[in-house]
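Changelog note: in this version the structure field was regenerated for every chain. One regenerated record is shown below for reference.
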Amino acid sequence: MDITELNEKIKNESAFVDLLFNEIGKVIVGQKAMVERLVVGLLGNGHILLEGVPGLAKTLAIKSLAAAMKAKFQRIQFTPDLLPADLIGTMIYNQKDGNFFIKKGPVFANFILADEINRAPAKVQSALLEAMQERQVTISEDTFKLQEPFLVLATQNPIEQEGTYPLPEAQVDRFMLKVKITYPSKEEELKIMRQNLNNVSDGKIQPVISPEDIIRARNLIQEIYVDEKIDRYILDIVFATRNPKEYGMPGLTDLISYGASPRATINLALGARAMAFIRRRGYVIPEDVRAIAMDVLRHRIAVTYEAEAEAITTEHVIQEILNKIEVP
C-alpha cells in the first residue's frame, strides 16, 4: 500500500481515539500522559503497571476506560490473605447431583484491575502469569481462553514497604509498560477540588467504541510502516542497556546490573506503532519511540548498588541512553 494511502486510512480509522480521550476527560482531570499510556497498552495488546501515591485517579481512569468501550470490568483488591482461586476460580462440589462444577473467577473479564498488586504474596501474583502471557486460564484439568481484548492493569503504591511483596522480575517483565503517575498541577487540583466539593461532574461516561473496534484497530496497527532505520534505532536503545560501553557510554557499565530483555524490543516497536496510531499517522517516527521508551524500559533495567548509593535511578540511565544514541 502506498504510504500516502496508508496514512489516510490510519487517519480515518483512528478517529475514535479522540472520542475516547474526550469521554474519559469528563471525569479525569489532567493526567493526559496516564490516559494516553492506557490506550497505548490497549492498542498494543499489552498489560500496564501503574505506580503512584494514593488519590491520583488510577482506579477511576481504568474504570472510565472500560466504561467508554462497553467492556466487562473487574476490580480485584489484592490483600495478604488472597488465594489464587479467588482470582481464576475453582472447582465446587454440588451436593444435589454429586458432581463438581467450575466457578470462574473475576479474571474472566476484558479489563482486570489488580489493585495494589504488591500486597498479595507471590503465589497469588503468579496466578496472573498464565492469563497475562497465554491469554488463558487453567482450572483443574480444563483450560479456558480469555475473551479479547484482555488487559491487566495493576497498581502499586511506591511509598509503603511494610506488608508488601515486591513483584519478581519475571512477572514485572510481562507488563508492557510501567507508568509512574505524578501529582496534578495547581490549576488541575483546583478543578478536582471544586468538582468534588460541589458534587459536579461533566457527565457520566458513555460508550463510544466497542471491543470489536479495538480488535480491528490492533490488526490495523500491524500495517503501520516502520522503516528499517527505526528498527535499528530501537535495537540500539535496547542493546545499549546491555552493553553501554559499545555505544560510547563506559560510565554506565558499573551502574547497570542487567539490561532490558527481548520483550523490551518487541514492546518498544509495538508501543511506537500505537503512538503513531494515536497521533493519526500511518508511519512511525523516532519521536514515537522516544515518547514511549521510558515506560517500556524503566521496569526492565536494574541498577547496581553503586548507582543507588549515588542516587542514580533507572530513569537517569534511560535518559542518558536516549540522549547518546543517534536519532535516525
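Spot check on this record: The longest strand covers residues 89-94. The chain has two domains: 29-194, 224-324.
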